[in-house]
Write a structure and sequence with these properties.
Radius of gyration: 22 Å
Largest sheet: 10 strands, mixed
Number of strands: 14
Number of domains: 3
Strand content: 15-25%
Structural class: alpha/beta
Distance between the termini: 67 Å
CATH architecture of the largest domain: Alpha-Beta Complex
CATH class of the largest domain: Alpha Beta
Order of helices and strands: HEHEHEHEEHEEEHEHHEHHHEHEHEHE
Helix content: 25-40%
Shape: globular
């Protein structure tokens, strides 16, 4: 027996759940990114939540052509819950590790190989995950998904790490779900099963609370590689940063904070700060909604700040930004200019500059003034 065959036999089984609802347009890319993984010891569990497009036909074709498909479960009625589909898939899984491969995302072909290696080295880790890149409906890159926020004392995501899960829950999870995309993570099945005992899905951000329960008493690992691609598109309401969604999510976030406080009474300071930030930021999403209704009147425009609000704004616009002033633009299809390189010449052809960063708004306004910019300057505060 050759070394490759021996390696395949020894490799732990990975169960892949593919929960789909009306993602026919993205299924081919997702399914191929699974079938062509460099890691081969897989079982694939397909689920369709009563799609009204051609998804079922494509999934049936894949299940017939791919020998590693274990089962294909088709709902006759929509469940209304993504997490309920996760659980249904999990009940069919027999692997050591679990990957929830969202049907509108896709992955690098080394994704499983890389994260299995990390989990095998860290037996106390409940999950390992990696960086994600935002993409639009046509798979054009929109830049790296930010995980770090200014409320964290340290940007852990600049390198590989493994952190105590309880510390993550106390200090990071009140501010942000740091496992921002399920498709970016590989779970240890025993840990996943244990967390489900104390959990029942109830809302749009079920994954946030579930991760808190999953990490309690365990370890969180991260691999500093861009192996996951997370799609923004008009049908993906869970990633839509609208004011209406923000209000709904805020109520559910308060529920998450209650659970964190109950599990970790010593985290009261972090929970209080997170609530204050939640309240302070409430207007930003309404402002973006208003901007979306007016952007066609802005002529040739630029964005300052390549944050999540910018990416949501870009994904919904009929006209593209001419340029984005931000140093994080390198991995995007858009032209970018760091502030340190901003010149009057770069501004001459622009009718409007939209400032998407609240924290640096005054700095940008002063810079535009000093460079003699005479066009329209729009900020989120003015569009509440």
């Amino acid at each position: 027996m050759n070394n490759k065959s021996q390696s395949n036999i020894c490799a732990p089984l990975v169960s892949i759940i593919v929960p789909n609802y009306n993602h026919y347009d993205y299924l081919e890319q997702r399914l191929q990114s699974i079938a062509k993984q460099t890691y081969s010891n897989l079982e694939i569990i397909l689920l369709d939540d009563a799609s009204s497009d051609n998804s079922v036909s494509r999934l049936e074709e894949f299940s017939l052509s791919e020998a590693r498909v274990k089962t294909f479960i088709k709902n006759s009625e929509n469940s209304g819950s993504a997490f309920a589909q996760w659980i249904k898939g999990f009940e069919q899984a027999s692997g050591k590790y679990l990957w929830i491969a969202e049907s509108d995302d896709f992955s690098d072909l080394h994704f499983i190989e890389c994260l299995v290696e990390q989990l095998e080295q860290q037996p106390k880790a409940a999950l390992a995950y990696c960086h994600s890149n935002w993409i639009d409906a046509e798979s054009n890159p929109l830049g790296l998904m930010d995980i770090h926020v200014p409320y964290f004392e340290e940007n852990y995501w600049l390198t590989d790490f493994c952190l105590n899960g309880d510390e993550v829950n106390r200090n990071l999870m009140p501010y942000r779900n740091v496992v921002r995309n399920a498709s970016s993570a590989l779970f240890r099945v025993t840990s996943f099963k244990a967390a489900l005992k104390d959990f029942s899905p109830s809302g749009r951000i079920d994954d946030w609370l579930f991760y808190v329960l999953l990490l309690k008493g365990n370890v969180l690992c991260f691999v500093n590689r861009e192996l996951n691609f997370c799609r923004l598109h008009s049908g993906n309401f869970s990633r839509s940063l609208t004011s209406n969604n923000y209000n709904k999510n805020s109520r559910e976030r308060i529920n998450v904070l209650r659970h964190i406080l109950a599990l970790y009474p010593e985290s009261a300071g972090s929970v209080h700060n997170a609530l204050a930030i939640l309240w302070k930021n409430r207007f930003k999403y309404k402002a973006v909604d208003n901007l979306l209704g007016q952007h066609q009147e802005m002529g040739s425009y630029a964005l300052y700040g390549f944050n999540d609000l910018s990416k949501y704004f870009i994904s919904r616009c009929y006209t593209q930004a001419e340029v984005i002033f931000d140093k994080k633009i390198a991995s995007s299809k858009y032209n970018g200019i760091p502030l340190s390189h901003l010149t009057a010449t770069a501004l001459q052809q622009l009718d409007t500059v939209i400032i998407m960063s609240i924290f640096y708004r005054k700095q940008m306004e002063v810079m535009l003034q000093n460079l003699g910019y005479s066009g329209r300057v729009v900020s989120l505060e003015k569009h509440q």
